[in-house]
Specification:
The protein has a seven-stranded mixed beta sheet with strand order 3-2-1-4-5-7-6, sandwiched between helices. The protein is 40% helix and 18% strand. It is globular. By secondary structure, it is α/β, with parallel strands linked by helices. It has a single domain (4-205), classed as Rossmann fold. It has helices spanning 14-28, 53-65, 86-100, 115-127, 155-166, 179-193, and strands at residues 4-9, 32-37, 72-74, 104-108, 132-136, 149-152, 198-205.
C-alpha cells in the first residue's frame, strides 16, 4: 500500500547523503514522497556560484531519486541560524502535518550536532507525534549514533544515491562526497543488517 513520506532536509543534499538510496527504493515502490529543504545556504556558498545554486542542484538530484519536482518545497532560512527561528520552522512543520498527514518522516538524527540539523530534528519530532519517524545518519555530524533501523538497498539504488550527490557541484571535493566512502558505509551497514548494502537510521518512533 502506498504511503506518504516526508523527507526533511535542513540544507539541500542532507537527504541525499543521509538516505538517498532508501528514498530511491521508496520511490520505486510507488510511495508518495515529499522533500522539504529549509535553507539555500547562500552565505556558505563557495566562490564562483550563483545565489540559490544549491536549490537548482536539488531539482536535478530529486529527479534522479524519483521524486516529483512538484513535491520539492524550499524555504529561505539563513544557514547556521535555525535556533533563532525555531518557532517559525515548527509552524511550517505543523502546517505540513495537518495538510500532508505523512505516514513516515525522515529527518536528521537526534545525535546530529549541527545546530540547524538539531532544530529540524527536535521540531520534527515535536510536530509529527502521530507519524513513524526515522533519523538519518550523517557520520561527520554524529560523534555517536544508535542504529535501531536498517534499510536494505540494492546496488542500483546506491548508484542513484551517488549520482544524486554528484549533482551538487557546490559540494564537490568534500571527503564525504567520495563514492568509495559512500559505498564503504553502505557495505558496513549491510554487514550489520545481514545484507550486501544498507543505510542505517535512528529509530525514533514507529507506528503501524
Amino acid at each position: 500500500m502506498s504511503k506518504k513520506i516526508l523527507a526533511l532536509a535542513p540544507h539541500p543534499d542532507d537527504i541525499e547523503f543521509g538516505c538517498g538510496a532508501t528514498i530511491s527504493k521508496l520511490a520505486s515502490q510507488g510511495h508518495d514522497i515529499w522533500y522539504f529543504a529549509f535553507s539555500p545556504c547562500n552565505r556558505s556558498m563557495p566562490e564562483g556560484f550563483e545565489e540559490n545554486q544549491l536549490y537548482r542542484e536539488l531539482e536535478k538530484s530529486a529527479s534522479i531519486l524519483g521524486i516529483d519536482g512538484s513535491k520539492v518545497n524550499t524555504f529561505d532560512f539563513e544557514v547556521r541560524e535555525f535556533p533563532g527561528v525555531r518557532q517559525e520552522i515548527l509552524e511550517i512543520l505543523i502546517e505540513q502535518r495537518n495538510s500532508l498527514k505523512p505516514d513516515l518522516v525522515l529527518l536528521p538524527s537526534s545525535f546530529d550536532i549541527h545546530q540547524d540539523h538539531k532544530v529540524v530534528s527536535d521540531e520534527g519530532v515535536r510536530a509529527f507525534k502521530n507519524s513513524s519517524i526515522l533519523g538519518y545518519e550523517l557520520p561527520w555530524n554524529t560523534p555517536k549514533f544508535h542504529h535501531g533501523y536498517f534499510s536494505k538497498v540494492t546496488q542500483d539504488q546506491l548508484e542513484k544515491k551517488i549520482s544524486s550527490i554528484h549533482c551538487y557541484q557546490t559540494q564537490k571535493g568534500k571527503n564525504y562526497s567520495d563514492p568509495e566512502f559512500i559505498k564503504g558505509l553502505a557495505r558496513l551497514r549491510g554487514v550489520q543488517a545481514g545484507a550486501e548494502l544498507a543505510e542505517g537510521f535512528e529509530l525514533i518512533r514507529w507506528i503501524e
